[in-house]
Each structure stands twice: as C-alpha cells, then as structure tokens.
From TrEMBL:
Its EC number is 2.7.4.6. Homotetramer. The keyword Cytoplasm applies. It comes from Desulfoglaeba alkanexedens ALDC. It catalyses: a 2'-deoxyribonucleoside 5'-diphosphate + ATP = a 2'-deoxyribonucleoside 5'-triphosphate + ADP; a ribonucleoside 5'-diphosphate + ATP = a ribonucleoside 5'-triphosphate + ADP. GO terms for biological process: CTP biosynthetic process; GTP biosynthetic process; UTP biosynthetic process. The gene is ndk. NCBIfam families: PRK00668.1. ATP binds at K9, F57, R85, T91, R102, N112. It is an enzyme of class 2 (transferase). Its main location: cytoplasm. This is Nucleoside diphosphate kinase. The active site is at H115 (pros-phosphohistidine intermediate).
Amino acid sequence: MERTLSIIKPDGVRQGVIGEVIRRFESAGIRIAAMKMLQLTQAEAEGFYAVHRERPFFESLTRFMSSGPIVVMVLEGDGVIARNREIMGATNPKDAAPGTIRKDFASSVEQNVVHGSDAPETARTEIAYFFSEMEICA
Ligand code: CMP
C-alpha cells in the first residue's frame, strides 16, 4: 500500500477549505492514516523545502509556508502519490484542470492550497519530516 504526504497550506486553512480538501480525498477512496495541525517556523519550512533552496522563490515560499497553521496528513492507497497529484491539479492554478483543488481554490503558483509528494522516495522523506511511525495508523 502506497503512502504520500499531503499538506493543506496556510492559504487553504485561511480560506476554510480543510474539510473540503479532506472530503475530496475520502470521496476518491483515499484513506487518511495520520493527521495534525501545526505552524512551521521559517527554518522548519526551509528544511522541508531544502531541494528548492537555490530557486528564486525560496525565501517567499518559506515565509508563506510559516505564515499560519497548516494541516499535514499521511494519505494511503493504491497509487496514492499519482492520484493525489491528479486531485490537486497542476502547481500553477492557471494550468490546473477543472475540478481540481488548485483550480478551484488556489490564488497563485506559490499560494496553491496543497502540497503532495512527487515520488515514493520523496514521500518517505517528507512523511518522516512530520510523523514518527507510531503516529501513523496502518
Ligand atoms: P509545492 O507542490 O508545495 O512544491 C514547491 C512549491 O513551491 C510549490 O508547491 C509552490 O508553492 C512553490 N512554487 C513553485 N514554483 C513557483 C514559482 N515559480 N513561483 C513561486 N512559487 C513557486
């Protein structure tokens, strides 16, 4: 059974779409195996997005990601990494397909409501950034 990390970003929490995002996952038959709400420090956001350290948007992204509470979840299901990415839509809401979370709720390529791991190895690292194995309900 595959796992992925999902984050509802500060703009999603501020818009009040936590329930709607979770509803979309559960309606698609995806199981939530762990969940918590927390606020990252900018240093913690920098650690999470370390692969983007050289990108021009890194400072702004990590400031945004530490600007308010987020909801982090472990999603579980067959092919859940790809299925989550389909439900989220393209990174830039301008390119996102109709009916996706980012098309419906994102305001910009940075403030795009949700994050999802892009590959199995990334998913393992990202899940371990937020959850111990004991916190994940198998
Ligand atoms: P996410 O899926 O969390 O992965 C990296 C994040 O960086 C991405 O979503 C966006 O929030 C942000 N991002 C990606 N590209 C850009 C960009 N061109 N300008 C600003 N932010 C970006």
